[in-house]
């Protein structure tokens, strides 16, 4: 999953905020940036999966309602 430019900037801004509030060496800083990027990517994927599931559910409900409606008339 590739993050958008805005998402990358958001991760970098959060990393800067964390760096200012703590004393990280270069190794830990790099590790934190990688983990934050990985988290942002996973969050984006989960959001897309959630949206896909909602669409499938909506289609299923509409299909069931249409099927139920045919027998009533």
UniProtKB/TrEMBL annotation:
This is Uncharacterized protein. It comes from Microthlaspi erraticum. The lineage of its organism: Eukaryota, Viridiplantae, Streptophyta, Embryophyta, Tracheophyta.
